[in-house]
Design brief:
By secondary structure, the protein is an alpha+beta fold. The protein folds into two domains: 105 residues, 2-Layer Sandwich (Beta-Lactamase); 237 residues, 4-Layer Sandwich (Phosphatase 2c, domain 1). Helix content is 36%, strand content 27%. A five-stranded antiparallel beta sheet has the order 4-3-7-6-5, sandwiched between helices. A five-stranded antiparallel beta sheet has the order 8-19-16-13-14. Helix 6 runs antiparallel to helix 7. The longest helix has 41 residues. The C terminus is likely disordered.
């Protein structure tokens, strides 16, 4: 006897109703699934197709079932791929999935799809049907195309950025070269060498140096550092170099030369965009088998004097003010003798303010600023030396700082040879 259910309805009747609903639901799910379904015979003819795929393609069922094959629904390129790849792989493997194809609708439009197919075999192992699921890939194709477009735009922007960066680097390098002498002149009885380390290829630095002849067989030289970087620093550097060269032709005293420079810089930059610099200016005169060097400093780090006797010391010029800070800055001068074997080194503070990275190549396991004492010890370790030897060793030292060297560095070295020919250009 049937058990009563909900108001006396027999259990068997309820089961029958549910079974009927499930049968209807299964057919409805097949016909109106969110994806396309079709079954094809081994010869390729379409045996069954659901309403979803028919609506996508705009065909009637009778137009396709028993009349057309799955390959007939593909574009020309899709049919070629189906014949050469899709169908052979399906026969070998019995299934294939995730294949991107394009179907051609009744009105000629293209429908991008993702296709998965499986082979149904009989008891004898022979194929009976090929069941294919078709997913609408229009959104995915649009997304892929958007990604490709974005990638092309990014690559184009990157190429344009790289081109602009190369142009900027070329401009910076060209401008930097105009602020330095193209080559150091030959000074009879003296060896000379120089080096300029650029910390950033994106910005022009403000370090500068020069060596040039003066009336009466004398030679002028200078090395300095303009505050800041970029175009403003480059403009100030150009003004300073040419002012120093011009003043040196008329003023024999290095103090007067710095006073002239100070007046020019202060007049040009004392307003809303003040600029100043540090500089050492010197005059060389031949004395017997050596030279005298008269130095005046405008707030610049002291020069290094590395003796032929193996000594090393700083050569200070006291009371030197920063150039351009005040209208009437005082400057003093000092005169030193350069004997055979002696080397005079001028440098900018990018060297002494370099940061030592622990475990780096700078020869120090501790961290912190390189500093004046470390530079003096470095010079003493090379003594006696020559201009070329010191600059070569300094280049290796600078390379050892790695990322710790974040400021431009200029070095100018002058040495009196010990009994050998002198005057080679470095």
């Amino acid at each position: 006897m049937d058990r009563p259910r909900r108001g006396g309805e027999p259990a068997d009747s309820e089961h029958a109703r549910i079974s009927s609903l499930l049968e209807d639901s299964a057919e409805d799910l097949y016909e109106n699934a969110p994806c396309g379904y079709l079954s094809t015979l081994p010869d390729g003819r379409i045996a069954k197709i659901n309403r979803t795929l028919l609506d996508w393609l705009g065909y009637r069922r009778e137009d396709l079932v028993g009349r057309r094959s799955f390959a007939d629904l593909l574009t020309v390129g899709g049919r070629l791929y189906h014949e050469t790849h899709f169908a052979p792989l399906l026969r070998m493997q019995g299934e294939i999935g995730g294949i991107a194809l394009e179907l051609r609708a009744a009105d000629g439009t293209r429908l991008p799809v993702m296709v998965t197919s499986t082979v149904k075999t009989g008891h004898d192992g022979e194929p009976q049907l090929i069941r294919t699921t078709v997913f609408d890939a229009r959104d995915r194709r649009a997304y892929e195309q958007e990604l490709l477009r974005a990638r092309r735009e990014a690559e184009q922007a990157r190429a344009e950025t790289d081109l602009e960066r190369r142009r900027l680097h070329q401009l910076v390098a060209t401008l930097q070269r105009t602020l330095l002498p193209p080559a150091l002149p030959v000074v009879p009885g003296l060896d000379v060498a120089a080096h300029y380390h650029i910390a950033s290829i994106d910005q022009v630095g403000g370090d500068f140096y020069d060596l040039f002849p003066l009336p009466g067989g004398r030679w002028g030289f200078f090395l300095g550092d303009v505050c800041g970087k970029g175009a403003g620093a480059a403009t100030a550097t150009s003004l300073i170099r040419y002012t120093l060269r011009a003043a040196a032709q008329y003023d024999t005293d290095p103090r007067d030369v710095l006073s002239t420079l100070n007046a020019a810089v202060h007049a040009q930059y004392h307003g809303d965009g003040p600029r100043f610099c540090t500089v050492i200016y010197g005059v060389l005169e031949r004395r017997g088998d050596g030279f005298t060097a008269t130095l005046a400093s405008g707030g610049h780090p002291a020069a290094l004097l590395i003796g032929g006797d193996g000594s090393a010391r700083y050569q200070y010029s006291p009371d030197g003010m920063l150039v351009g800070i005040m209208d009437d800055a005082p400057f003093t001068a000092t005169t030193i003798a350069l004997r055979p074997g002696d080397t005079l080194v001028l440098y900018t503070d990018g060297l002494t303010e370099a940061q030592i990275i622990a475990g780096g190549d700078s020869g120090d396991a501790s961290e912190g600023r390189y500093g004046d004492q470390a530079l003096l010890d470095f010079a003493a370790s090379l003594a006696p030396t020559t201009a070329a030897e010191f600059v070569a060793a300094a280049i290796e030292l600078l390379a050892g700082f790695g990322d710790g060297l974040d400021d431009d560095t200029a070095i100018l070295a002058l040495s009196v040879p010990s009994g050998q020919a002198a005057g080679a250009v470095r």
